[in-house]
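To assess whether ligand presence alters the predicted conformation, the chain was also submitted together with zinc ion. Input:
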Amino acid sequence: MRLGHLLYGLQCVACGSEDRLWADYEWNLIECRECGERTPLTPEISEFREAE
Ligand SMILES: [Zn+2]
């Protein structure tokens, strides 16, 4: 089981860092490794994950 999955090509809305967002599918949220900002996992990002 993977606890985190790096989301390439996504930008943090808080600090603007790219490729620093981790999707936590257990908690259904995304966390920024750069600034620690957490946002809920959205359907758009779920689609992004499947497209990868
Ligand atoms: Zn950030």
